[in-house]
UniProtKB/TrEMBL annotation:
This is DUF4232 domain-containing protein. Residues 1-26 form the signal peptide. Residues 70-202 form the DUF4232 domain. Residues 36-57 have a biased composition (Low complexity). InterPro entries: DUF4232. Residues 36-70 are annotated as: Disordered. Pfam families: DUF4232 (PF14016). Keywords: Signal.
Length: 214
């Protein structure tokens, strides 16, 4: 009796399923079996897109491979007094030459300062100017040179606002107590006759054209 009862119960469940299916069809609802996605479809969905060789490489660092900055000790300076001074204005051509064995970079302004016979820096109002234009960053090979112009106002040594000295020094780090420059066409050092009421310093350029024409 128990076995027959279980058979009737199972038959009832199967009959109910058939009835529900027939009702869904009668109502116009399509009944489709739900199947798991194929293994290949699942892999396509979950996989990350692969990188291709057509992607643009990262831009290199603009400073990559740049030469180290020149130091004051790497260079020598020669300052040549220009012959066409007008009134109380004087111009000088500063030639900076790399005397080291390695290439180095220069840019901006080299500081120029006046010193007296006691090797003291003379207080001269000084201004950096963008003449003859913006400085051009230059990689300076051993033995090669760059240029800048300086312009100053001469004065009477008896004037308390007049700076007087016998040598000029240069520096690349902004300091005034720099390295002595070689002077051309200036008064002899013993005369202490370099006078400056004010000084303007132009920009470093890769060639001398225009550096003393302002």
């Amino acid at each position: 009796m128990r076995i027959r009862t279980m058979r009737f119960a199972l038959l009832g469940v199967m009959t109910a399923g058939v009835v529900l299916t027939q009702q869904a069809c009668a109502n116009g609802t399509a009944v489709e079996p739900v199947s798991a996605p194929a293994a290949s479809e699942a892999a396509t969905t979950e996989a990350e897109p692969a990188a291709t060789g057509s992607e643009a490489p990262e831009s290199p660092d603009p400073d990559e491979g740049a030469v180290p900055a020149c130091k004051t000790g790497d260079l020598e300076a020669n300052i040549t007094l220009q012959p066409d001074g007008k009134g109380d204005t004087r111009m000088g051509l500063v030639t900076l030459t790399n005397k080291s064995d390695t290439e180095c970079g220069v840019h901006g302004h080299a500081t120029i300062a006046l010193k007296n016979p006691a090797d003291e820096v003379v207080n001269v109002p000084t201004e950096n100017v963008k003449e003859p234009g913006e400085s051009i960053r230059t990689a300076l090979k051993s033995g090669s040179s760059v240029y800048q112009g300086i312009k100053w106002t001469v004065c009477d040594k008896g004037d308390s606002t007049c700076g007087a000295g016998n040598t000029l020094v240069f520096s690349l780090d902004g300091g005034k107590d720099g390295k002595p420059a070689k002077l051309s066409n200036f008064p002899a050092p013993e005369k202490n006759d370099i006078t400056m009421k004010s000084l303007k310093i132009g920009t470093i350029q890769p060639d001398r054209q225009g550096v003393v024409a302002w």
